[in-house]
Design a protein that fits this description.
heterodimer; A: mainly beta; three-stranded antiparallel sheet; B: mainly beta; seven-stranded mixed sheet; four-stranded antiparallel sheet; 11 strands; 0% helix
Chain lengths: 112, 123
């Protein structure tokens, strides 16, 4: 099972919107509405930001939104803030039991 | 509140084994699968395997088959991950993370993570 493909880096100025893509296959991203996104600050554990493609857990800012088209999912951060600078990983449920989940390659978001 | 608290950092020699613990609190331990994910320095997240704390059933990534063992002790709400025959490229932060297998609230996502355990393999 190969990792999902994400851009290595994305940057934007404060207040702007940025979008991170996550490309998989019909066996993972395209086959299920179980795409999730995680934010990871340096030295910290990942934090769930989006689940089921577009749902936000309680406490996550509505500046974070998710979507999916075909085999590609996307995370959009609007009104970019300095605290959004972090690594972001997508994940998808897969048709395999091992692994049942696959992660993306990760994207470094830089706030200019 | 839900918490997953992992054991402390470890330094091991090549060929040795390491056992990392993950103590759960704030929820019914047997109601959620516990997964283990690792992250090598400067690298991405890698799924290692999972355990059903209710039955003890496990699934492991093919890459770790034969070297990893995941267990649990329901009496103390703790999951364990043991990795044997350590190599230098096993140096990584190891995380436990829970997933709701029935998707009642947050399906198919790692909604809570442990703080991570750094395992360093060096001669």
């Amino acid at each position: 099972q190969s990792a999902l493909t994400q851009p290595a880096s994305v940057s934007g100025s404060p207040g702007q919107s940025i979008t991170i893509s996550c490309t998989g296959t019909s066996s993972d991203v395209g086959g299920y509405n179980y795409v999730s996104w995680y934010q990871q600050h340096p030295g910290k554990a990942p934090k769930l930001m989006i689940y089921e493609v577009s749902n936000r857990p309680s406490g996550v800012s509505n500046r974070f939104s998710g979507s999916k088209s075909g085999n590609t999912a996307s995370l959009t951060i609007s009104g970019l803030q300095a605290e959004d600078e972090a690594d972001y990983y997508c994940s998808s449920y897969t048709s395999s039991s091992t692994p049942p989940y696959v992660f993306g390659t990760g994207t470094k978001v830089t706030v200019l | 509140q839900v918490q997953l608290v992992q054991s402390g950092a470890e330094v091991k020699k090549p060929g040795a084994s390491v056992k990392v613990s993950c103590k759960a609190s704030g929820y019914t331990f047997t109601g959620y699968y516990m997964h283990w994910v690792r992250q090598a320095p400067g690298q991405g997240l890698e799924w290692m395997g999972r355990i059903n704390p209710n039955s003890g059933g496990t699934n492991y990534a093919q890459k770790f088959q034969g070297r990893v063992t995941m267990t649990r002790d329901t009496s103390i709400s703790t999951a364990y991950m043991e990795l044997s025959r350590l190599r230098s490229d096993d140096t990584a932060v190891y995380y436990c993370a829970r997933v709701d297998p029935f998707g009642v609230v947050i399906p198919a996502a790692f909604d809570y993570w442990g703080q991570g355990t750094l395992v360093t393999v060096s001669s």
